[in-house]
Design brief:
It is a single chain. Helix content is 45%, strand content 12%. It has 402 residues and is of the alpha+beta class. It has three domains: 2-68, no CATH class; 96-325, Hypothetical protein af1432, CATH 1.10.3210; 333-401, no CATH class. The protein has a five-stranded antiparallel β-sheet. A three-stranded antiparallel β-sheet has the order 4-1-5. A hairpin with a 4-residue loop joins strand 8 and strand 9 (367-375). The protein is globular and about 65 Å long. It binds ligand C2E, succinic acid (2 copies) and fe (iii) ion. Residues 199, 227, 252-253 line the site of fe (iii) ion (FE). Ligand C2E binds next to helix 11.
Length: 402
């Protein structure tokens, strides 16, 4: 049986299964196999691995491990129940089409601003907190009009601008999350600013580590983890930033089971905002194509969050996050009951199974069709989602349709 265990439960004699252990470096021989020595476990731990799958038919059992079928079942059950629950937000105020132009402009402006800040930091200059705050305010205003417009743009990313786009996307996700929790304007802006700045310390990590196209060595990993302290140091000398904004940089890699960094904080010292930032950070990171891994489809990533909430992400917040993005988030490729496929361009909070889809593919004849919008919530449209598809696995680039 395949079981999921924590790194603390891993003992010599256990057999590591080659399943979902992406975080285990490829360079260190095989990712699967029998663990013979404690030193191997120490090495794996030094690489930042927190959870691992073992095969109990090939090695020693771990009674406290969670059978992989149970993990899968939990994911499926939770998804089924969330897919019929309404989110907390009222419906959108502007159509996604009408908001697209402003969103596009804002996304570009924010990219320029954060890109400039990253350059400035490299040259030892200070961060303009007011500009970040203004940008956060503009983003919140667009999110309030129709958050799907900015959410669509966040799926159009380029591989070589990861740090920049990730910063903006985490800012947007924090804003969407904050509003779904009915946080007020000031606090929502502070969360967005925190998302925009959470990883700025990475710019001080040497390029050959930051952009390494493979797994990091233990030494490189130690340096990589310092991006949090670098960020904190920069933000500490930036006048005009709120404590909440700075805390997002400090807390985004802390984990509820105390396994996070840089301080290994216990649960009770990780604030709600800190926990929210961890969720937004991980969600955006795993959905992105990277130099060292292929991104997951949005709804697959949400399922992984459920899995990670067993040990170290805040369970209630993960479910809130899924409700707020909906089980079929913007950017999900879906197969429809009418023999078409398309990408979700607007999630439906009230009825998560009935989003707005841009249709572009005929699944029966396997060819593209003229793109058109299909609103599954429209009573006249008797079409439903029958399946989600993995765009990357199918070799489909959804970006032109967003
Ligand atoms: P990031 O890529 O922005 O990822 C942020 C967080 O998302 C990670 O924090 C981790 O918690 C989660 N995450 C991202 N990708 C995966 C994945 O494939 N599997 C799992 N299980 N979790 C994932 P973490 O681990 O503390 O890493 C911090 C940063 O260190 C990463 O930020 C990335 O810039 C860098 N990094 C981590 N591992 C590698 C690596 O193997 N190679 C390179 N070049 N960079 C890495
Ligand atoms: C993992 O569990 O390895 C990634 C998710 C996280 O860091 O919380
Ligand atoms: C990073 O910016 O975190 C590294 C670049 C990449 O992995 O794509
Ligand atoms: Fe980070």
């Amino acid at each position: 049986m395949i079981k999921k265990i924590t790194i603390d439960q891993l003992k010599p004699g256990m057999y590591v299964a080659d399943l979902n252990n992406q975080w285990v470096p490829k360079s260190n021989a095989s990712r699967s196999g029998l663990i013979k020595y404690q030193s191997t476990i120490d090495k794996v731990r030094a690489l930042g691995v927190q959870e691992i799958y073992i095969d109990t038919d090939k090695g020693v059992d771990c009674p406290d491990g969670i059978p992989v079928d149970a993990v899968k079942q939990l994911q499926a059950e939770q998804f089924r129940s969330i897919s019929v629950q309404s989110g907390t937000r009222a419906s959108v105020r502007t159509s996604v089409e009408a908001e697209r132009e402003r969103a596009h402009k804002l996304y570009g402006q924010t990219k320029n601003l954060i890109g400039g800040i990253l350059e400035d930091i490299k040259q030892g200059k200070s961060v303009d907190a007011e500009a970040v705050d203004n940008s956060a305010a503009d983003l919140v205003s667009s999110l309030d009009a129709n958050e799907n417009a900015l959410a669509c743009l966040s799926y159009i990313r380029s591989k070589d601008e990861y740090l920049l786009e990730h910063s903006i996307n985490v800012g947007l996700l924090m804003g969407i999350f904050a509003r779904s929790k009915r946080m007020d304007n000031d606090l929502t802006r502070q969360l967005v600013a925190g998302g925009l700045l959470h990883d700025i310390g990475k710019i001080l990590v040497p390029d050959e580590i930051l952009n390494k196209p493979g797994k990091l060595t233990p030494e490189e990993w130690e340096e990589m983890k310092r991006h949090v302290s670098y960020g904190e140091q920069i933000l500490d000398v930036t006048p005009g930033l709120s404590d909440v904004t700075r805390s997002i940089c400090a807390l985004h890699h802390e984990r509820l089971d105390g396994s996070g960094y840089p301080r290994n904080l216990p649960k009770d010292q990780i604030t709600q905002v800190g926990r929210m930032s961890a969720i937004c950070d991980v969600y955006d990171a795993v959905t992105a194509d990277r130099v060292y891994h292929v991104g997951m489809a949005p709804n697959e990533a949400l399922k992984k969050l459920i899995e990670w909430s067993i040990f170290h992400l805040d369970k209630d917040l993960v479910y809130d996050f899924i409700r707020c993005l909906s089980v079929y988030p913007v950017g999900t490729l879906v197969e429809l009951s009418n023999g078409r496929a398309g990408v979700i361009v607007e999630a439906n909070r009230r009825q998560p199974k009935l989003p707005l889809v841009r249709v572009f593919f005929n699944t029966r004849h396997q060819h593209q069709v003229e793109t058109h919008l299909l609103n599954l919530a429209d009573a006249k449209v008797e079409v439903e989602i029958i399946n989600t598809l993995d765009a990357r696995a199918l070799g489909i680039d959804i970006r032109p349709f967003m």
